[in-house]
Design brief:
single chain; 273 residues; Rossmann fold; 7-stranded parallel sheet; 7 strands; globular; disordered C terminus; KR_dom; oxidoreductase; SDR family oxidoreductase
Length: 273
């Protein structure tokens, strides 16, 4: 068996595949030889070698039409990458129910609807198919300011495990929990190079991910190298987030006024050395 990540002859649909992490995923699938279709809510100039469709993934009828169009054009659909997602910062106590509903809709319900449409095709074609859900480290840790997003991503990881059982053995379903990634929007979000550098110092590997590195993980999960991987949550976060108590231990202790002590009785600080 060849160990090359060769996806020649396979058709992949990448939602939100024209910018940010999605663009890195698209480029990685192209490099692996796949035929790539992207979609987004806006009409954009497609990346060379791809075709692009305008589709709001929160619209179930539009998603069904998109999958039908991919199959009509290419005869099959081998890979779905549910990448479209995200959420603006908003405190949970202040955000409206409509806001939360939209966040959960985009990050949980939309991937489910797209997966359902893809599964209907994959179950009936030779070779089945693979679905890769792009999740987040926010699924497994507190997500203040994006609480609904974190909850939706936790739901997406749970959904991944359930679909992997329901749709086996024809369709494999996995998720990638992505950490901080350097995209065209990173500097604006974190206050420029200085802010990014400060954040990167907290990452064990010393830097944020590049979008294509997330793409490499997605290609692996879609490839024959992962033929026995399904229902998995693969973390792509550069080593994760070190526990906060470690930074407390390495920070200088606050100074306290010294208290007089007699020659026969050492100070508290001396006793604790």
């Amino acid at each position: 068996m060849s160990l090359a990540l060769d996806l020649s002859g396979r058709v992949a649909l990448v939602t939100g595949g024209t910018q940010g992490i999605g663009l890195g995923i698209t480029r990685s699938f192209l490099a692996a030889g796949a035929t790539v279709v992207t979609c987004s809510r806006s009409a954009v100039e497609p990346l060379a070698g791809t075709t692009h469709h305008v589709c709001d993934v929160r619209d179930a009828e539009a998603v069904t039409g998109l999958v039908d169009a991919v199959v009509a054009a290419h005869g099959r659909l081998d890979v779905l990458v549910n990448n479209a997602g995200g959420a603006p910062y908003a405190l949970a106590s202040e955000a409206s129910p409509r806001f939360h509903d939209k966040v959960v809709g985009l990050n949980l319900m939309a991937p489910l609807v797209a997966a359902q449409a893809a599964n209907r095709v994959m179950q009936g074609q030779p070779g089945g198919g693979a679905i890769v859900n792009v999740s987040s480290v926010s699924a497994t840790r507190p997500s203040p300011g994006t609480a609904a997003y974190g909850a939706a991503k936790a739901g997406l990881d749970s959904l991944t495990r359930s679909l992997a059982v329901e749709w086996a053995p024809r369709v494999r379903v996995n998720s990638i929990d992505v950490g901080l990634c350097r995209t065209e929007h990173t500097d604006d979000h974190y206050g420029g190079d200085a802010g990014v550098a400060a954040i990167e110092r907290t990452i064990p590997l010393g830097r944020m991910a590049r979008p294509e590195e997330v793409g490499h993980v997605a290609v692996f999960l879609a490839s024959d190298l992962a033929s026995y991987v399904s229902g998995a949550r693969l973390e792509c976060h550069g080593g994760g987030e070190p526990p906060v108590f470690l930074s407390a231990l390495t920070s200088p202790a606050p100074s306290t006024p010294s208290t007089p002590s007699t020659p026969s009785t050492p100070s508290t600080q001396e006793q604790n050395r």
